[in-house]
Every structure is written in C-alpha cells, then in structure tokens.
Automatic annotation (TrEMBL), chains A, B:
It comes from the Bacteria. This is phosphoenolpyruvate--glycerone phosphotransferase. Pathway: Polyol metabolism; glycerol degradation. One of its GO terms (cellular component) is cytosol. Homodimer. The dihydroxyacetone kinase complex is composed of a homodimer of DhaM, a homodimer of DhaK and the subunit DhaL. PANTHER family: TRIOKINASE/FMN CYCLASE, TRIOKINASE_FMN CYCLASE.
Amino acid sequence: MRMLINVPETVVADALRGMAAAYPDLTVDVENRVIVRRDAPVAGQVALVSGGGSGHEPLHGGFVGHGMLSAACPGEVFTSPVPDQMARAAAAVDSGAGVLFVVKNYTGDVLNFDMAAELAEDEGIQVAKVLVNDDVAVTDSLYTAGRRGTGATLFVEKIAGAAAAEGEPLERVEAIGRRVNENSRSFGVALSACTTPAKGTPTFDLPDGELELGVGIHGEPGRERRPMMTSGEIADFAVNAILEDMPPHNPVLLLVNGMGATPLLELYGFHAEVQRVLAERGVAVARTLVGNYVTSLDMAGASVTLCQIDEELLRLWDAPVRTPALRWGM
Amino acid sequence: MRMLINVPETVVADALRGMAAAYPDLTVDVENRVIVRRDAPVAGQVALVSGGGSGHEPLHGGFVGHGMLSAACPGEVFTSPVPDQMARAAAAVDSGAGVLFVVKNYTGDVLNFDMAAELAEDEGIQVAKVLVNDDVAVTDSLYTAGRRGTGATLFVEKIAGAAAAEGEPLERVEAIGRRVNENSRSFGVALSACTTPAKGTPTFDLPDGELELGVGIHGEPGRERRPMMTSGEIADFAVNAILEDMPPHNPVLLLVNGMGATPLLELYGFHAEVQRVLAERGVAVARTLVGNYVTSLDMAGASVTLCQIDEELLRLWDAPVRTPALRWGM
C-alpha cells in the first residue's frame, strides 16, 4: 500500500483539516464534514450545494467559492454523504433565496439528497435539484440506475453557480443547471485501477497492457477491455462515443480530465488528440479546460466531457469564479 | 506500460500541441520547443526565462504568464533543454531591459544555461542568472554537484516574476530571486518510482511497503529507505530536516507539493500534518499552497518547501499572477 496517510479511518477528516488550513476563504466543519464559503449566506443569491463520496478531489470541496458552489458535503471515500450533512449545509448557506442541490447520479447520492431536501424543506428552505448523468459509457452500472454523473458536474456547478451569483431566482438557476447537463456527455478510460484506503488493494484488476474503455470514476467496469491503445486511438474512441450519443450542433466546452495518476505531460498530449478529432468532426471548441478535476484517487486514465453551449451558457462559463481549483476573472 | 501516449518519441511535442490548444495566452513554438507569453516582449520589463527537463509539469510551461515567467524551454523528459532553445526564448522576450535565467541546479541545465547566456549576450541581450538549489536531502547526487533544485523554483519564479512585472531593473530582480532561493529549503519523499516513456519501466526499484526519504524529482536516491511511515511521521521527518538546515527566524511560505500520482485527498491530509509540525516548532505560516506543481511524472509522494519571508517578499508573493497553473488577483 503506497499511501500518504495516517490510518484509513481518518483519511477524510485529515484531508478536511488540511483544506481548512489551505483555504482561508472556506469554513470547514471537520466534525460534521461540511465545507462552506466563508461569506455564506450571500444575501439575495440562490445557494448551490453539492457533495458525494470523497476520492474525486478537487470535486466538490475545491469548487466552493464565489461563482460556483456555496457548500460541499464530502462522504467517506466513494461513499455518499448522509442527509443530515446535506441539510446542515443547506441551512448554513440559504439566504432565503433557496438552495439548488447538484446531485451526481449514483443510487446512494440520489436517495440521500432526496431525504436531505425533505429535511431542509421541513426547516422552511426552498430546495430544487439538478441530477447530473452525463456518462455515455453504460446505461446502468454497479452504483447507478441510468447513466453515471462524472465530468459534467464541473460544468453544471460552474455555470449554474454563475447564474446564482448574478442573482437569478431558484427556478432559473435550476433550469440552467438542467440545460447544461442535458447538453453534456462524457466518456472515460482507465489505464490502471485505483486503491481505496480502506481496502488497500486495487478496486479491480486491470492487467498491464490493457485498458478499460468507458470506466466510471470509482473504477466501475466500462464498455469493454482492450489491449493498450495509443493516445490518438483513445481520443477517437472517446469523442466518437460522445458524438454518437449527442450529434454536434453547437460549439462546445471541452474538459479533458485526468483521473489522478496520469501525468499532466500525458494529459496535454491527449488533449491535442481530442482537439484533432473534434476538428475532423467539424466541432468548434469554444473553451477548453485540461487538468485533474474529477479524479478517482490514484487511477491512471482520463475522461473527455463535451457541453454543447449557446451564448448564455458561454457567458456564464466565462463569468468570474474564485474557488481553490477553478479561478478566473477576480 | 500504462501510458496515455502515442509513441515515446513524440511525447513532448504532443504535449506542446496540447498546451497550445489549451492556453490562448501563450504562444507555443512546438518545433523549437519554446513557450512564450503571447504579449512578450513587455516594454520596460525584465523578462524571466526558465526551463528544464519535461516530466515536472506544470513546471515550467504552466508558470508562463503575467507576473511569473516570460518564457519556458522544455527539454526531453528528465533531460536539459539545449542552449539554442534558451537563447531563442531570451531573444523572443527581451524588451531591452534584460533577461533573468532561473536555473535548477542540475549539471546539464547549468552548463546549457551558461552557454545560452553567452549566445544571448553575443546578440546584445543583458543576462543574469539565479541558481535554485533548495533540496536539503543530499549534497551531491546523480545529476548534480551541490544541492538539487526542486520546489523553491516555484517561489523564485513567482516572486522574481512579480518584481519584474513592477518594473524593477535586472539587478534587483536577480537579487530578489537569489534572496528567495537562499531562504528556501525543500525535502521530498517517494512512495513509488516513476516511469519515463522512453524507458517504459520504473526508474528505480522501490518495494511496496517502503519509502524513499529525501528523493529527488527524477527519482534520484535520497537519504535513506525505510519501511512505510504514516503521513504524520513523514511530515515530522521532512519539516525537521528542513529546519535543521535553516533554523526558523521568519514566517514562511509553505508549499506542500504532490509528486504526480498522490491523490489530492492524501495531499490535503499530509498538509494538515505539516501544519501541525510547523505549529509545534513555533513557525508561523504566512501563505500556503497545496497541489501538484513540481512533479515527477507518475511518482507517488510529496515534498515540502519552506521559504522564510520578509515583508517585501510576501507582498511580491501576493501580487497578481496569471498563468495556467498559478492565478490570482486578476
């Protein structure tokens, strides 16, 4: 086990202590596992709350701040946070304008955010939800009914967060979040498995020289396993899988996301290949983001997410954001 | 071999194509391997040029932009760039105010930057140099006479870059860069080796359950090898090694840097332990940066860098910066 940890039991709490010390703009409640913008609640603004299993950092805690999330609830590694956590986060950030839950489509998350919505509504908080289910690789999987939520979560949180920062009402922020999700698709590949601290051994067995096409962000099985392919071949496969599901009609936001252990040097090269395929398919790239944003612990691999955008979504994407992991315009 | 590449021979060129497509603020000369600020040369400002072997991304190309580097020269993986590259970069960014070379202390880099300085001076460009040699782990190593240059490179580039952006003359920018290096120390640990594309197998053999204390950023051997330690024990060892070499006298800038394959979740937890040790030793942390900044391909592990700062260096650290990997205040 090659882990930089104390003991598996304290990994999430240790990480939260580390985030608290790293980011003075955040308030981190280590005991209750809630990460909140220090200036929350922000008067007159809808608040965005997301969360999910830990192990995908910087998602979600690294996206808390002006123009994106108001709060994040980290669960145990690859395990949904609990309803109490989410309701507590909602109460901490609600200004009276309501709260939007951004929920990745995994059975545990969906159930728990539903229960949290009831708890929050009992406290008089208006709640709406956006479900993120962008992964075209498989329909049902180990942890989901329907498609998994992966890279598009970043797009939903950034763009809906910008709408909230502009003072849009809850139903508008929700509608914008849904529009982003509906126009987003992802496809991921794994070159290695990942290892959770609790288990201490790889979550699945991927022999050297093979890759998993269509893998999920917890190492869930994908579409198929093949002998190793080149970066260019993987880009062809991933982009074509996305465009087959969502024919190109608009310019796109492009996210080329590293799963955690793939060097940035390789990720840049993969990005070049993804750009080549998009150019060949006549898809214009309006904006591009390359880096480790929605990770799977120490998994090697990458994912591609496309969001077909219109003028309004692009303007909201470009709007100022100030979070640990995404920052521009301020 | 679990790499997201086409063929080993094109890894650096592919990555540069990918950077060119990702960052409209940069001009990337893929053929000559020079990454330049799009708005260079900037009238009246000293230009900073750095470079070194590839495989440490985002260093150096990700630090090109306002308030930091004017240009970067990536070599082959773990191999110095050549003098022609560096001289070409200097010519591209010199406004007439002179160029500061920021050089990590590795034999190849030092020789080649020396030759590049001669080439540039022959063209009438005024050149100064700052050598970065912050790694306290070992005195001489596989690639160096004297100490290795590692994490402090980021501090030197950011702070000297801010001085340049304020219009300071070359000798002042150089003096500030030297002051940052003189007050900085680093210590790194590896939990796994890294694998270069050309070799395809790990650069050294580190059995599961052991770690290398004092490792270099190319996997050079460190001080000693031990059975796996906890995050807290590693933090104690690293911080004490640094403070033994440089007794605390000022508040510090703290960089907790991931080597590439260590999940951010673990890095945050390690950061918490480093903060604990610093508090126990009575060292005040003025600013902290946690993330993958000076990496070693797919190596698992982390490094700690401290820079003991004064008011001027802190002000320059806080000054606006706008690069792919470091961005604030604009």
